[in-house]
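We read letters as residues; the fold follows as tokens. A sample entry reads:
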Amino acid sequence: MDDIDPAAISAYRKARQESNAEAEELNWGDEELLHAVGALRRLDGRLRVTAAGILTFGRASAIRRLFPVHRIDYIRVPGRTWISDPENRFESIDMRGPIILVISRIIAAITDDLPKAFHLEDNRSGQRLDLPILPVRVLREAVVNALMHRNYQIHQPIQIIRYANRLVIKKPGYSLKSEDKFDDPGSVSRNPHLAAILHDTRFAENKGSGIRVMREQLEGTGLSAPSLDSDRNNDTFTAIFLFHHFLNRSDWDWLKQFSDLDLSEDQKRALIFVREVGAIDNSTFRSFSKVDTYSASRSLKKLRDLELLVLKGSSSKTYYQAGERLLAASDETEATLEVSSQDKGGSSQDTEISIRDVPAKLRVALQSVALGRRAAPEKMSAIIQDLCSWKALSAADLAKLMDRSSVYIAQNYLYGMVRDGSLSYLFPEMKNHPNQKYVHKKATAKAAPPPGQL
């Protein structure tokens, strides 16, 4: 019980009373209450705190000791693309604490920082009311989903990345519910005790309606539906929320350039999405069009045939970026398309890097594993971390320096090192980015500013 935070228990009791003032457990003592919700378990005649108990009610010191990467990183990136230069630091806040207390802190941090929209409270007073551009209900659903359904066996924090034009929430753990069932009733819980506690306190509904609610709320405010990516291979789930009203007046003016192409509404939305984010795939297209996989594929292929999009990747990693015709569209203010244009054809740096570019100390280590020599996996991982601390490198860069194939390096080292948190993606919100590189986490680390400051 020394590992339990009394403030978290009080917060649970308060939330539970607000949701059901007649709840029987409100009359129980703390130990009996925690045992009932799965936070304590009797083992060899003694009460022991469970993993769910630590995560939901634990003291900060206990959480740091037992779940060292259970934190939420709120990262503010200037502009629309991930910072490629590790020396150009982004602003970051990391939040830790028991789930029952940290949810409100996360939502407050996001809402305080989001762009504001306003409306008049009523027609008579003319009182202006400023509101975050994303509805608070949507933010709550997304944050609670990330905490409730994350995979706590993966040693990675939840990342919330705030770009100039979108909010990206990425959690460890793919969705146990298939993407074609997202709008169907019923919830599949990876962490049933956490789900039950959050249901009792009205943070979560546990009826499988969260994604449907987010889509309806965004549609009601004129915003685009979220882009949702459940990735089983990397065991991650990513949600992207645009701060953009689809097909407003400026969009229609921009789309007039393609008026002779007989595009559907969904295809027009896809072009706007690529203009804002830089890429789109079949899953993303389905998320806002509500069509099946085959129909989405046909629509995207038409845009490709019209040279508005260009196909990238292969098999399950297929995606589309701006094609020649879209890049030539007259919109000089779109930085995202400018980046896409620079990325076209891949990065030239992948073929130019040489062992002569590597610092001397690293060069010695590389020579011991290059030229086909065998090396222990631990040594290979350590060298990869050192290289990615020196600069962001692609799989092709690493393969060339270590004289291995890029497939071998990716499958045997990079995927696992991203999962365990020793490496991170240079473009974390889009793992299939054509210029994807890997960065050692120490290369982008920054001490968090005082709470509430960005």
